[in-house]
Amino acid sequence: MENVPNCPQCQSEYTYEDGALFVCPECAYEWTASEQADIEASETITDSNGNELADGDTVIVVKDLKVKGFKSAIKQGTKVKNIKLIIDPADGHDIDCKIDGFGAMKLKSEFVKKA
């Protein structure tokens, strides 16, 4: 069976291809292959300069970030190695990482740049 994407509306896995359209039988949503390409492209995560980020990249913090429960902030210029991306972040924090002196953290990609 060919690889048909899940429905972008309801995330149903029971979608099927009907000519040039993808169709969801659960919510009746229809979309084209070009719309699917746009959906997949929007899932990429970019840094503050628009560079695409990937798992394992090294990034640099571009502004001081206050952290709850800590007296000091994460300073601008702090290098963060071996990041992991979160594709569907619930709270907007789309990078999972460990920062020396702070431990495990989640960051927003808008506050980092690719090293």
TrEMBL record:
Name of the protein described by the UniProt record: Alkylphosphonate utilization protein
Pfam families for the chain: YjdM, Zn_Ribbon_YjdM
SUPFAM superfamilies found in the cross-reference section: Prokaryotic SH3-related domain, Zinc beta-ribbon
Ranges where the Protein YjdM N-terminal domain occurs: 5-32
Species of provenance: Ruoffia tabacinasalis
Domain (Protein YjdM C-terminal): residue spans on this chain: 46-115
Family indicated by similarity: Belongs to the YjdM family.
